Amino acid sequence: MDEQLKEIIRKITKFRDERDWVQFHDPKNLAEAISVEAGELLENFLWLNIEQASKLDDKKIGKIKEEVADIFIFILYLCDVLKIDLLAEAEKKIAINAEKYSVAKAKGTAKKYTEL
Amino acid sequence: MDEQLKEIIRKITKFRDERDWVQFHDPKNLAEAISVEAGELLENFLWLNIEQASKLDDKKIGKIKEEVADIFIFILYLCDVLKIDLLAEAEKKIAINAEKYSVAKAKGTAKKYTEL
Amino acid sequence: MDEQLKEIIRKITKFRDERDWVQFHDPKNLAEAISVEAGELLENFLWLNIEQASKLDDKKIGKIKEEVADIFIFILYLCDVLKIDLLAEAEKKIAINAEKYSVAKAKGTAKKYTEL
Amino acid sequence: MDEQLKEIIRKITKFRDERDWVQFHDPKNLAEAISVEAGELLENFLWLNIEQASKLDDKKIGKIKEEVADIFIFILYLCDVLKIDLLAEAEKKIAINAEKYSVAKAKGTAKKYTEL
Question: Would an 8 Å CB–CB cutoff place C88 in contact with chain D?
Answer without folding.
Answer: no
